[in-house]
Amino acid sequence: MAPAAITPVSPPSPTLDNTSRLTKAGTITTLEKTISNGATVAELDASRLTITPNLNPKPVPAPNSPEVWSQSYTTDHMLTARWTEKHGWEAPEIRPYGPFSIMPTASVLHYATECFEGMKAYRGDDGKARLFRPDRNAKRFLQSATRIALPGFAPEEFLKLLKKFVGVEAPKWIAEKGSFIYIRPTMIATAAALGVQRPKEALMYIMMVMFPTLDDPSSRPPSVPTPGAPLSNGVTESKPVPASKGMRLCASRHDMIRAWPGGFGSAKVGANYGPSLVAQGEARARGYDQILWLFGEECYVTEAGGSNFFILWKNKQTGRKEMVTAPLGDGVILEGVTRASVLDLVRSGKLGDVDVTERKFTMHEVLEAHNEGRIIEAFGAGTAFFIAPVQDIHFRGTDLVLPLGQDDSKDGKKGDEFAMTIKGSLKDIMYGRWQHEWGCVIEEQTEMQYE
């Protein structure tokens, strides 16, 4: 693809329309304090960073090995920065990866005062290490932190720390062209006191974890169970599992809700994920990959597991190709970085004449479009699974087999061409084949200087 420009939508300031007046007021106060730098305590300062080497480095495992599929194999170091209400941010440190020591009364263990981000670093075809639109992750990290009363920070200082950390670890951990590694920035409240109150101490940390290519099912080793495999208690799935061509979704029931208007679904906090694991496990036991989360009696389509959901169909009124996804603004949908990139890319016209619509739509509309033969394809978009085409959706006793899941698709198409074109374009940016402003090149530290 030629290195033509895409005019992206500028990353918005944290939006608070989805919160109550009291929550909005408190969050705005924290954000204004962060932006104005009006605090009397120390701000997060990347220039104070120190580095302590890991004297017992680990070997790098083979790509898609069982160690990598465990999603627990970390790099040699982590970055930490401690905050207290009295003194503010202490000097950040890159130090050997290892356990933390927190008291049993720590706020994070009782009140879910925790937020995180999901990112990746890539080794490009040109040999350079890159991040993908990290400014968006930084701003969303700040929004999530302030939403649950954790301390604010200057996003530009966080980005400096992130880039430095990636620059230290990338030479060893993503040495091969075409490789990547998952990055997990996190913040937790650590004050050793019970009581429902704003956290007085917190810890920000960044770690890197080896991840498999989740968007490629063929990379899964035999030791890793596939969706629908027998459960550990001997119960097998209730639904036969056909040969998988793409992601299989099971629409949530009326008694399962992931997020709600005015809540915190738009913030990347741990409390959004833990309660969803029971439904996720149930779906996998029945042979599905993810839950397609619906909301309300109307069955509004929201997200697919932890990914944003897109559908490409022929508009009922105009007959034109239209890509539809749920809108932001009411606290239900997470403002995904991949989501924003898909929208910007398609709106640029680089992928043809396709209308882009962000609106509420129901599963009944999807079912109608399926019955009328108007669905072209559907896919999920997120950092971990990247771009994942959908082959079928189970909804209240009905199986909607999309073109990808059909043996003989219309016009001889497989039913994932649009999604795969998007995926290819974004990968070209991530791996430096398309020189684009979304690809953030990292200055690497091949010989570490320790203080």
UniProtKB/TrEMBL annotation:
SUPFAM superfamilies, A to Z: D-aminoacid aminotransferase-like PLP-dependent enzymes
A Pfam entry, by short name: Aminotran_4
Molecular function per GO: branched-chain-amino-acid transaminase activity
Modification N6-(pyridoxal phosphate)lysine occurs at: 268
Reported cofactor(s): pyridoxal 5'-phosphate
Record's compositionally biased regions (Pro residues): 219-228
Annotated spans, Disordered: 1-22, 217-242
Keywords linked to the UniProt accession: Amino-acid biosynthesis, Aminotransferase, Branched-chain amino acid biosynthesis, Pyridoxal phosphate, Transferase
Gene Ontology BP, a term: L-valine biosynthetic process
Domain of life, per lineage: Eukaryota
The keyword Transmembrane is assigned to this record: no
Presence of keyword ATP-binding: no
EC number: 2.6.1.42
Catalysed reactions, as listed in the record: L-isoleucine + 2-oxoglutarate = (S)-3-methyl-2-oxopentanoate + L-glutamate; L-valine + 2-oxoglutarate = 3-methyl-2-oxobutanoate + L-glutamate; L-leucine + 2-oxoglutarate = 4-methyl-2-oxopentanoate + L-glutamate
PANTHER family reported in the protein's UniProt record: BRANCHED-CHAIN-AMINO-ACID AMINOTRANSFERASE, SUBGROUP IIII AMINOTRANSFERASE
Name assigned to this protein: Branched-chain-amino-acid aminotransferase
Species: Cladophialophora chaetospira
